[in-house]
Amino acid sequence: MRYISTRGQAPALNFEDVLLAGLASDGGLYVPENLPRFTVEEIASWAGLPYHELAFRVMHPFVAGSIPDADFKKILEATYANFAHSSVAPLRQLNGNEWVLELFHGPTLAFKDFALQLLGRLLDYVLAKRGERVVIMGATSGDTGSAAIEGCKACENVDIFIMHPHNRVSEVQRRQMTTILGDNIHNIAIEGNFDDCQEMVKASFADQGFLKGIRLVAVNSINWARIMAQIVYYFHAALQLGGPARSIAFSVPTGNFGDIFAGYLARNMGLPVSQLIVATNRNDILHRFMSGNRYDKDTLHPSLSPSMDIMVSSNFERLLFDLHGRNGAAVAALLDSFKATGKLSVEEDRWTEARRLFDSLAVSDEQTCETIAEVFKTTGEILDPHTAIGVRAARECRRSLDIPMVILGTAHPVKFPEAVEKAEVKATLNLPAHLADLFQRPERCTVLANDLKAVQAFVSQHGNRGKPL
Ligand SMILES: *Cc1c(COP(=O)(O)O)cnc(C)c1O
Fold first, then answer.
1. Which of 308, 292, 311, 187 is nearest to 253 (CA)?
2. Which of 1, 53, 339, 432 is the most buried (most CB within 10 A)?
3. Closest ligand 1 atom to 147 CA
4. Is 285 a member of any domain?
5. CATH, residue 315
6. How many structural domains compose the chain?
7. Is residue 105 part of a domain?
8. Tens digit of pLDDT for each residue in 101-155?
9. Catalytic residue at 129?
10. Is 251 among the domain residues?
11. Residue 294 lies in domain
12. What's the whole-model pTM score?
């Protein structure tokens, strides 16, 4: 499989290179040159497969030519053996034809484990083959950091540096990162905010001199392998609900548009998806596009669903590429103008095309709490705030009551006790067994000033399993 850039000017890469690449050299994002397409009969024949075997069927066309089938199967089996539920991604019924797909049974209790558990293993496999080491740098306001660290902790050939804003992530989220102790794990608390952390990652990608020739790898959702891994659970959910003989609708709590873009790809690969609902919090740039063709940058509004607090959605460019007939020059022009003006809209017929599949809703903090309370009252289930936004949007935007509606349950409620408390749900939330002693575990973290040079010096002093590069 070859991968091309959404801006049309960067060289095409194979899977191995795309795994190690961040942005394409033209500033675009990599997408498959040709999407595999499965027949209804083929998809139907996968019913009842264990998750890792289904994952192999869905993903092997993407890695073909780079990873031998037998090795890929082994990697997938190890990846999903790590999940605390035998079905890996179980469905839970809320109402008649309404289901939550629980994607929070991985090691860090959020759906990001599906992709990052795989990414760490793929990286280590490819690097061992090449005899290379890499450094990962990432910024996090919560979920991504812990999932990336968990995914990379066993990697022989990776040192990972994750920056979070000092004293500005929740205690559970901080401990999920800082209690993972390994020579190759480096937590940095920056005396600044999340944007400061992200700026330092960007600046480090732009000027890599401090790395002395070691390659820098991105683990944010622009990495193609993350999107790829998320396609699988759309198939998994549909197969359990009578698909592909019948259509399925999905509602997806959305920030950077990675997770829902995977659902869009699943549909283009042959899964009968009738509707995709973009569920956002107050940071609603995607809702403004889907409802009124206005993708206009706004300021950041901190919310009760912090993993969806974004100003722009990095993966939206991948959808724009398809909406423009895969014309890289047109996408580049559109994004250049967005960069200059902070505004973007597309031609009417392209927008209408998107609206055939996508609906959207922006949900306030108040409505999020209302939904948590209501679902608890009627079903006894406690939703995390992100999932609650998905449920709210599913109920308001649903096109057909005959088609099963699946809401992606993106995080375990124990990670977001503040929202659950505000919803006045009177129930105790316990950490699952593998994290029960999280508050007793020793932590390791280095606090650094909001200073690029200091951070880069730290990376180059510790980037080789704690030793200098
Ligand atoms: C990351 C995250 C999201 C948003 O996913 P995107 O792929 O960025 O759209 C939603 N919910 C939770 C809990 C997350 O961690």
1. 308
2. 1
3. 15
4. yes
5. 3.40.50.1100
6. 1
7. yes
8. 999 999 999 999 999 999 999 999 999 999 999 999 999 977 899 999 999 999 9
9. no
10. yes
11. 87-109+225-422
12. 0.96
